[in-house]
Amino acid sequence: MNIAEIFDKMDYGPAPEADAEAQTWLKRHEGGFPLFIGGEWQAAQSGESFETIDPATGKVLARVAHGGAADVDRAVKAARQALGPWQEIGGAGRARHLYALARMVQRHSRLFAVVESLDNGKPIRETRDIDIPLAARHFYHHAGWARLQETEFAAYDPIGVVGQIVPWNFPLLMLAWKIAPAIALGNTVVLKPAEYTPLTALLFAELSRQTGLPPGVVNIVTGPGETGAALVAHSDVDKIAFTGSTEVGRFIRDKTAGTGKALTLELGGKSAFIVFDDADLDGAVEGVVDAIWFNQGQVCCAGSRLIVQESIAAQFIAKLKRRMETLRIGSPLDKAVDMGAIVSPQQLARIEALVAKGREEGGELWQPSWAVPKQGCFYPPSLFTNVQPSSIVAREEIFGPVLVTHTFRTPDEAVQLANNSRYGLAASVWSETIGLALDVAPQLKCGVVWVNSTNLFDASVGFGGYRESGFGREGGREGAFEYLKPKAWKKQAIPRKVKPPKRPPAPPEVDRTAKLYIGGKQARPDGGYSLEVRNPAGHLIGETGDGNRKDIRDAVEAARKAEGWSAASQHTRAQILYYVAENLSVRRDEFMQRIVDQCSVSRGDAKREVETAIDRLFAYGAWADKFEGRIHAPPIRGLALAVHEPMGVIGIVCADDYPLLGFVSTMAPAIAMGNRIVVVPSETSPLSATDFYQVLETSDVPAGVVNIVSGRRAALAKTLAGHADVDAMWHFADREGCEITERESVSNLKRTFVGHGRAIDWLDPAAGEGEIFLRQAVQVKNIWIPYGE
Ligand code: NAP
Ligand code: MG
Question: C-alpha angle 520/526/531, rounded to 5°?
Answer without folding.
Answer: 95
